[in-house]
């Protein structure tokens, strides 16, 4: 092993958390770095975790933020960038391309800084015009502000290369394999194994969860669709889902499932998991569903095709109902075999 490093990390809310991709990623990665002997410090946002102190060997420093959907990210970024520079870390890992300008504080004072660019934030529907402009400008300057960029898939690396002339190192997300534990969640919900479909994720417009639920109403199957997920802002997706569920009893909105055993059990025993993420690059929740041996139907994007490979099954938003009806008629043996192949690929 090389000499231990003093690593600073910022850009996400806090660890531990399974709320979104950034937090799930860092909750997994940072304890592993600490286990390897590195001194890891994560700069967390005030109000996002209970208490302070280390988490699985990772030191957590709580910093203040200006509250608000947009101000929280930007204010935390600049405060954390200054704190990380003053702490003299050997290297800093930053997530969220909105923080690209703050990476310059480290790079141009001699501190190596690596930026994980993740998805096309400037296309996300939850942001207003000003925020989308900030994300686009940040992506444009990312290559000059950070020492190095990391993309989670080759398709995202191509976007940064072609649109912003910024090369990236491709390091795919690889959430650890989990043993799927049988729980009582199906009995609690009154559903049967392979007797339901699942769609889930953060309730942001670009994840298409409300659109999938609405198109599901056109399917002929009597099987219910379980909708998992929540939002950290007043998302119109929540209202759309409530209206759809009120109009069709097959649509069951369950919200965020915090128990990870129950969550993976729901994925593993579903007839199909519909993954509608459209702009995020390699999505950790998709790889987690693969690890759970779920039978996955994914929105047809370059990112999802790269992750699922030649065996993937894809749909577009106009063909949700047809895809669901096709899976409703598939044999259980076929569903299990597809899940096994996805698990092996993961």
Describe the fold and architecture.
- Helix 4 links the parallel strand 5 and strand 6.
- Helices cover 40% and strands 16% of the residues.
- The strands form two sheets. A seven-stranded parallel β-sheet has the order 3-2-1-4-5-6-7, with helices on both faces. Strands 10-9-8-11-12-13 form a six-stranded parallel β-sheet, sandwiched between helices.
- The two termini are 26 Å apart.
- Helix 2 packs parallel to helix 3, helix 3 runs parallel beside helix 4 and helix 7 runs parallel beside helix 8.
- The chain has 13 helices and 13 strands.
- The protein is an alpha/beta fold and 346 residues long.
């Amino acid at each position: 092993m090389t000499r231990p490093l003093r690593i600073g990390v910022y850009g996400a809310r806090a660890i531990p958390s399974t709320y979104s991709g950034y937090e799930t990623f860092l909750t997994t990665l940072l304890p592993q770095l600490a286990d390897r002997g590195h001194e890891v410090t994560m700069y967390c946002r005030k109000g996002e975790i209970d208490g302070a102190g280390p988490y699985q060997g990772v030191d957590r420093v709580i910093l203040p933020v200006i509250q608000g959907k947009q101000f929280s990210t930007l204010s935390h970024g600049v405060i954390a960038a200054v704190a990380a520079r003053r702490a003299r870390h050997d290297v800093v890992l930053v997530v969220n391309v909105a923080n690209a300008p703050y990476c310059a504080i480290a790079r141009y004072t001699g501190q190596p800084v690596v930026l994980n660019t993740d998805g096309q934030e400037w296309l996300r529907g939850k942001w207003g015009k000003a925020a989308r402009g900030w994300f686009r400008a940040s992506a444009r300057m990312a290559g000059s502000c950070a020492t190095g960029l990391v993309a989670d898939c080759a398709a995202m690396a191509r976007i940064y290369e072609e649109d912003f002339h910024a090369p990236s190192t491709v390091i795919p997300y690889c959430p650890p394999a989990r043993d799927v534990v049988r729980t009582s969640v199906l009995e609690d919900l009154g559903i049967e194994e392979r007797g339901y479909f699942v769609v889930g994720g953060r309730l942001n417009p670009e994840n298409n969860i409300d659109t999938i639920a609405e198109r599901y109403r056109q399917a002929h199957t009597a099987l219910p669709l379980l909708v998992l997920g929540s939002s950290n802002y007043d998302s119109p997706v929540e209202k759309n889902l409530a209206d759809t569920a009120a109009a069709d009893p097959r649509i069951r909105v369950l919200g965020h499932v915090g128990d990870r055993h129950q969550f993976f059990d729901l994925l593993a025993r579903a007839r199909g998991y519909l993954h509608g993420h459209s702009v995020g690059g390699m999505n950790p929740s998709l790889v987690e569903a693969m690890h759970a041996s779920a039978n996955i139907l994914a929105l047809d994007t370059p990112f999802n095709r790269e992750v699922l490979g030649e065996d993937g099954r894809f749909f577009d938003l106009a063909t949700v109902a047809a895809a669901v009806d096709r899976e409703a008629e598939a044999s259980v043996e076929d569903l299990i075999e597809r899940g096994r192949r996805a698990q092996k690929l993961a």
